[in-house]
Design goal:
The model has no long low-confidence stretch (mean pLDDT 93). Helix content is 2%, strand content 39%. It is globular, with a radius of gyration of 16 Å. A hairpin with a 4-residue loop joins strand 23 (155-158) and strand 24 (163-167). It has 1 helix and 24 strands. It is mainly beta.
Length: 171
């Protein structure tokens, strides 16, 4: 791990995947619960990447969460996740017929872009946040949602694919 803030708690067992895990930064008072997997892929097969995984302060990452980057994932302060959450900026290949004929583990990694998650975001159990997505501040992502598009600040999003179901008016 590159840098770990003060009073960070990482429950065992947890796993770091990929090469060059010093590209992972974890902010102060963050708690990563057991069975989480953090991946920063500098190299996958013949591909080379410059990944970055930044987790802010005061975050609580639930058990069995899987966060994997070959591009960049930036998580703001105060994130809370349920269990079995996936945050991934990459996938094994695309949708072409040629790629379909290759076993998924042998396909090239592809990224639709970085993931940015704002401050004070709550991501429910079994939700998935996919590449190229920006989530604003004070957002709630419902359990089992699959986020494929940006979610602005102060919203609740749910469904597959996730859609805004409520805007929160704090004024």
């Amino acid at each position: 791990i590159g840098s770990v803030g003060e009073d960070v708690l990482i429950d065992k067992p947890c796993k770091l995947e990929g090469g060059g895990n010093h590209d992972i930064q974890i902010g102060d008072r963050t708690h990563i619960q057991s069975y989480c997997v953090l991946g920063c892929w500098k190299k996958y097969r013949e591909q080379e990447f410059s990944p970055k995984l930044i987790i802010g302060r005061d975050c609580n990452i639930g058990q069995y969460t899987h966060i994997t980057a070959c591009n960049r994932i930036q998580i703001g302060n105060g994130l809370l996740t349920g269990r079995y959450v996936l945050i991934s900026d990459n996938s094994h290949g695309g949708l072409s017929e040629g790629e379909a004929m290759i076993p998924p583990a042998h396909r090239l990694l592809k990224s639709k872009g970085e993931i940015v998650i704002g401050n004070n975001v709550w991501i429910g159990d079994k939700a998935s946040i996919l590449g190229g997505v920006h989530i604003g501040n004070n957002v709630i992502i419902a359990a089992n949602a699959v986020v494929t598009k940006d979610i602005p600040s102060n919203c609740i999003a749910a469904g597959v694919p996730a859609k805004i179901i409520k805007r929160l008016d704090y004024e």
